[in-house]
Design a protein that fits this description.
Elements: E1 11-13, E2 18-20, E3 59-62, E4 66-71, E5 84-90, E6 94-104, E7 113-123, E8 130-137, E9 157-163, E10 169-173, E11 182-189, E12 196-200, E13 209-214, E14 243-244, E15 320-321, E16 333-337, H1 346-357, E17 363-369, H2 378-383, E18 392-398, H3 404-408, H4 412-428, E19 433-437, H5 455-471, E20 477-484, H6 487-490, E21 507-513, H7 525-529, H8 541-548, E22 554-560, H9 570-581, E23 588-594, H10 612-622, E24 629-630
Parallel strand pairs: 3-14, 15-24, 16-17, 16-23, 17-18, 18-19, 19-20, 20-21, 21-22, 22-23
Antiparallel strand pairs: 1-2, 3-13, 4-6, 5-6, 5-12, 6-11, 7-10, 7-12, 7-13, 8-9, 8-11
Helix pairs in contact: 4-5, 9-10
Family: Belongs to the glycosyl hydrolase 26 family.
Domain GH26: 308-631
GO molecular function, one term: hydrolase activity
Length: 632
């Protein structure tokens, strides 16, 4: 796979199976053009699109145009036709991600449909449970461009399941992803850093399938007479036939194979897709639907007139940009809290940080306290007005006028400040910006009746502040629930009482720091994003968000790695790991570095420029395609 000849065969030993790169019938994808206007060049989503979604054959198993994988431990492009598709981590491959591409047109799918991605398992994991996720990605025009370093950034995460050694098939609900004729790409990932499985490849017209089930159009005239049902011996009821897909097949045969049976899946996950006809749970950010009552992932307009910008198909993910609530259509935003715990001018320090890392920081994380001043300030607003370097704000407000319970009950002093703040924001700043109230509340919880600072008091206070600002016309808040990353708090019985509620929380944030003080082989980015501890039942914050709040994007609201002169390679190791470990975390949509020369816990230094190797590693991280996002 590392050579230039795509026909080269190279066996790769993996954790539990053998991945053999078989160049069987290479897929000709460059210049691929479908009659409804999706392909290369201009004219995509032209007039034929307006006539789409009028056919729809009922149940169709679409075979992949392409089925391959990338692996961080292997240099070179993706194999053309591997016999199996590895997912997860193995010593030989590193982090493996399976990539699939399908074509959907108006002859096979109607507007009212469901869609399942059905993936037979060739080699199941040997662990008790392994989480597997599916996300939309931009379908590349040629596999020759697909490597671990150039793989397209993740878009919406549509579903997650848990699999084990008895799983024979993984079934994902991707209904929301299919909402216009086009070419669709999917990435199959796992956040589990010690788990591995292999899916069947697309050889011989078997393996992965995108099953769409379309509901028939409602009759527009009188119903035809119904023939009497047969009676007597030998009478039988036949099921509707499964129509073959009209999309090009990756296998050597033009004869469609029988579709996999829905009963073949033995996955124990509660996340298994709903049966045909049910409405799926809302994804992270259904793009293009201005109507909040619309079916998640479907355009708000007449479904017979699908809008090209509403889907997760080829054109939608060709460029990563922010949509509603600042959620990137693909990739992740980057930001910084510069010169924290210093008296330096933070706005100047932001510009200096950008110059050092050679990348615009789209999120400026600023901390406001009490009622000393109104925000955003003129200097903060100015940072968002540079057309060459688009930025947004993350305002972290910590009220000090009263206890949480008193604020939630309508403390007069706090109310007066919030009303002045609302007037200031509506008059001076109309762009969407991130906002949190009293971040990292765990450290301030006093779980004692009457304290006014119980976990439930925090949730009520957060809700009260957000709702009061909204009621006074502040409609550009993008709210973040910012948890503390220390695992001692997640074991507290009151931890789940902190969450204010889905209707007042847009993102879920985490403050996480490199806990190891040296490069001991354990120091990596994954410890920050999804840390667990010993035998605790805590699955890690990433797993917890995926299970408890699957519709919310995740943010590292603060993250950092402390410099230690005795272990100078520690920062470098974590920054280097972050570049490829992003492949584990499709829900992670923003990372905001916390830069300080002396933190509040022992004076530790998280600045990135104290070591040349660390600085260059951070610059490499910023150059990752994951962070090539256009802020709009």
């Amino acid at each position: 796979m590392g050579g230039s000849d795509s026909r080269q065969r190279l066996p790769l030993a993996t954790g539990r199976g053998i991945v053999t790169v078989l160049a069987v019938l290479p897929l000709v994808l460059a210049g691929f053009v479908i009659g409804y206007g999706v392909g290369s060049g201009d004219g995509r989503f032209g007039e034929p699109l307006r006539e789409a979604w009028e056919g729809g054959q009922g149940t169709v198993d679409h075979r992949p145009l392409a089925a391959s994988f990338t692996a961080t431990g292997v240099e070179g492009r993706a194999p053309q036709a591997p016999s199996v598709l590895p997912v997860g981590y193995s010593d030989d491959l590193g982090i493996a991600v399976a990539h699939l591409q399908f074509a959907v047109d108006e002859t096979t799918v109607r507007p009212d449909h469901t869609a399942e991605l059905r993936l037979p398992v060739a080699v199941p994991p040997d662990s008790e449970g392994m989480t597997v996720e599916v996300a939309s990605v931009h379908p590349v025009s040629c596999l020759c461009s697909l490597t671990a370093a150039t793989a397209p950034p993740y878009g919406t995460v549509w579903d997650a399941v848990e699999v084990n050694a008895s799983t024979t098939e993984i079934v994902f609900d991707v209904t929301g992803a299919i909402n216009a004729p086009g070419r669709y790409g999917f990435a199959i990932t796992s956040p589990d850093r010690k788990a591995y499985l292999e899916l069947e490849g697309a050889e011989y017209n078997t393996g992965p399938a995108l099953r769409t089930v379309s509901e028939p159009d409602a009759p527009t005239g009188p119903l035809p007479p119904t023939a009497p049902a047969p009676t007597g011996p030998g009478a039988a009821t036949s099921a509707p036939p499964i129509a073959p897909s009209t999309a090009p097949s990756a296998g050597p045969s033009d004869t469609p194979s029988e579709s996999p049976s829905a009963s073949a899946s033995e996955s124990p996950s509660a996340s298994e897709p709903p049966s045909t006809g049910t409405v799926p749970t809302a994804p992270l950010d259904p793009v293009g639907s201005a109507d909040p009552t619309a079916v998640p992932g479907m355009p708000a307009a007449d479904p017979t007139e699908p809008l090209p910008e509403s889907g997760q198909s080829e054109d939608q993910l060709s460029t990563c940009s922010t949509g509603p609530k600042l959620v990137p259509t693909c990739g992740a935003l980057v930001g910084v809290a510069p010169a924290a715990h210093t008296s330096r001018v933070k706005e100047d320090e932001l510009l200096a940080f950008e110059e050092r890392v050679q990348h615009t920081q789209q999120i400026y994380h600023a901390y406001e306290r009490g009622d000393d001043r109104l925000f955003p300030t003129d200097a903060q607003i100015a940072l968002t007005q540079d057309p060459e370097k688009p930025r947004t704000l993350f305002i972290n407000w910590k009220p000090r006028m009263a206890s949480w319970a008193e604020i939630a009950a309508g403390d007069p002093e706090t109310d007066a400040y919030l009303d002045r703040l609302a007037e200031h924001i509506t008059a001076n700043f109309d762009k969407p910006f991130f906002f949190t109230v009293h971040h990292e509340p765990e450290n301030d919880v006093v779980q004692k009746a009457g304290s006014g600072m119980e976990a439930a008091d925090y949730a009520a206070m957060f809700r009260y502040v957000v709702e009061r600002l909204r009621a006074h016309g502040v409609d550009n808040l993008v709210t973040v629930m910012n948890y503390m990353g220390y695992l001692k708090w997640v074991e507290k019985p009151w931890h789940d009482q902190l969450y204010p509620g889905d209707d007042v929380v847009d993102w879920i944030g985490l403050s996480g720091y490199g806990q190891s003080l040296h490069d001991d082989g354990r120091s990596d980015f994954g410890e920050i994003v999804d840390q667990t501890k010993g035998d605790t039942a805590w699955p890690g914050f990433y797993h917890w968000i995926a299970k408890e709040h699957p519709a919310k994007p995740m943010m590292l609201a603060e993250w950092g790695v402390f410099h230690e002169e005795d272990y100078p390679d520690h920062q470098t190791a974590v920054f280097q790991a972050a570049r490829y470990q992003m492949a584990h975390y499709p829900r992670l949509k923003a990372i905001v570095y916390f830069e300080t020369p002396a933190d509040s816990n022992g004076g530790r230094n998280s600045e990135i420029h104290l070591d040349d190797g660390a600085l260059e590693a951070f610059r490499d991280l910023m150059r990752s395609p994951y962070f090539d996002v256009r802020l709009e």
